[in-house]
Amino acid sequence: MVALKITLDVIVVVASVLLTLLILMHKGKGGGLSDMFGGGLTQNAGTSGVAEKNLNRLTVIVALIWVAVIIALGLLAKYNLI
Predict the structure, then answer these.
(1) How far is C-alpha 46 from the geometric centre of its chain's CA atoms?
(2) Which domain of life is it from (predicted)?
(3) Burial class (CB in 10 A: 0-12, 13-18, 19+), 73
(4) What is the pTM of this model?
(5) 3 pLDDT above the threshold of 70
(6) For 28, which DSSP code?
(7) Burial of 63 per CB tally in 10 Å (0-12, 13-18, 19+)
(8) Residue 54: is its pLDDT beyond 60?
(9) Is residue 82 within 8 Å of residue 4, measured between CB atoms?
(10) Does 47 score more than 60 pLDDT?
(11) Tens digits of per-residue pLDDT, 57-82?
């Protein structure tokens, strides 16, 4: 069980870093801090290319993996399996 906990801990750390990077790669929607740092200069009127759609899908997949691992760690801790 210790190996399972260590594996899940590693997965949650990797997923957290990857999720942070993926979220930061998204295009700003304007009106916030993204405009302050120049994000509003190349704003297209809400259009989304193939790369943006794939980035959205990848972000959702990584977020779901992150949530599943967090729930698994919580259940393991609740039932004293770790």
Answers:
(1) 22
(2) Bacteria
(3) middle
(4) 0.76
(5) yes
(6) P
(7) middle
(8) yes
(9) yes
(10) no
(11) 999 999 999 999 999 999 999 998 87
